[in-house]
Amino acid sequence: MYIDDGISGKSTNRPALQQLVKDFKTEGFHAIIFTKLDRLARNLRDTLNFYHEAEKFGVKMICLDSPIISTDGPMGSVMLQIMGAFAQFERDLIRSRTTAGRMHKWKKGEALMGHPPFGYYLDKTTFTIKINKQKSEIIHKIYNLYLNNRLSILDVAGKLTDDGVPTPSALLGRKDASSHWNVNTVREILRNEAYTGILIHYNQYKFKSNDKNRVLKTKEKKDKKDWVPVQFPKIIEKEQFDLVQAKIQHNKVIPKKKHSGLENKFMAENVLKCRHCGAKLYKQTTGARNFIYYACPWRRASAKQLKARNKEKCHLPFLNSDKVDFAVFNQVVNLIIKPKEYVEEWVKSKPTEELKTKILSLTNKKTSLQEKLSRAVKIEINAHNPELLTLYSQEREKIEKEYNSVSRTLNTAQNELSFHNHKLKKLEEFQNIFNHPKREHTMRMKIALKTALHKLPFEDKKKLVEAVISPETGGQVYIRELDEYDIGVSKKDGSNKSSKPVHGNKVGEREIMVELDFTLQPHRIIDIISSHNDIVFKLDKR
């Protein structure tokens, strides 16, 4: 007796069936008796493969419910194939009807395709997707740890585990649930766009079975009419989600090189750029570690490397890392303490009025070209003379090319203006945090905050720098050497050569200029500052 209780007949990977195949090859069976054909196999190919294998060993197949398909004589063999084809047809028909019924329920919102993402559940009474409060709080914690506290995905998983936050499997009540958060689970939560409340489409891709009857997802998309649209309630703001994606992408290109024993060095390593050539600065030490410094990659590049990348040798010298880190952190603290000064400097340095004039001019030009293009298309359509048609076509292509160029330039200018306005708004918001009716209270707050920030541990200082600069969204710190122009020394020969340093050549003696190009995110800074007990006053999170 070979029994596969509770296992579908659609698969041949059934323990008892596999044992049967092994046994009839060695035990000298005369016949295999079964009740129904679909208990043997539901796929015609599997049925015939089994039949031919049994036939090689002289084993007959006898079906009790349908004796006509028993393999006794040529008629039995033919009927087996016919009935096998019908068994597969019936299975495919049932599957098609089942899928159609499910699809109808999915599209009506009466059922959910698969399991809802972590944080949601389907209310079977109202057939609506709802937010699980406990799980949504965990999602917010994950986003806050990764984005605002600047933890890595691995560190987020470790922090959740250390804090005793229940894992998804634990919340489901599974007996084998782990108490340790998995890195992939955290990554999936951070990458799931459903949390922003946008429309998500399920059932987009086709599936296929492999040789082991396993159903695998392919990269080939189904027709759009088969897609199942689902919209989940919003848990995470789109802006926050986009910042997380930018940070994930940015972290992929951060150098992984570590310097053992120098964990409290290179605070600004992820935000520095050379003002001369725009290259990202890298960290370096001498063999004896007498000097720990930042360097431009094109400073030490060979002539061959420079030629291959069409670069010129950069003249930014090696810069003492401690000096650079102190200068950058000092600037960051000044920005936090005196945002008003940065607002005023930002307005002075950015020609927003020029941008607005440029946008207006480009908009008018785009409209004019659009009208020309419309007329050119009509003339081309109505032309019958082949020679004229060629001329009209060339003229239309010329206008179209100019139109596309103007559109791209206009889009760039609009994005730049939007970026400027957004940064100005953020600075003004941050400035309002420190506003207080009593001036002396505001001053005391700023002095206390400045003192507290300088006392932060190294790792928190590094997080604060990256939170202010936000390198994943384009923020950076430009570094260059102090030159003669910075101290008011003019050139006597009137040449156009680069200005010279006004100090010695040793790494420790060089003076530097730090220029912040930041994309300030006030809530990140507030979260980092407020997480320290040493900072006793409350910040207005508005």
Keywords:
542 residues, mainly alpha, Rossmann fold, Hect, E3 ligase catalytic domain fold, 4 domains, three-stranded mixed sheet, three-stranded antiparallel sheet, 18 helices, 14 strands, 50% helix, extended, disordered C terminus
Brief write-up:
The protein has 542 residues and is mostly helical.
Write the layout of secondary structure elements.
Elements (H helix, E strand, L loop, with lengths): L14 H12 L4 E4 L2 H4 L3 H13 L3 E4 L10 H35 L11 E4 L4 E4 L1 H16 L4 H10 L5 H4 L11 H9 L7 E4 L2 E5 L5 E7 L6 E4 L6 H14 L20 E3 L7 E4 L6 E4 L1 H4 L2 H6 L10 E2 H17 L1 H11 L2 H31 L3 H48 L5 H16 L3 H12 L6 E6 L30 E6 L4 H9 L12
Work out the radius of gyration. Answer: 35 Å
Biggest sheet strand order reads 9-13-14
Assign a percent range to the helix content. Answer: 40-55%
Globally, the shape reads extended
In DSSP terms (H or I, runs of 4 or more residues), the helix count works out at 18
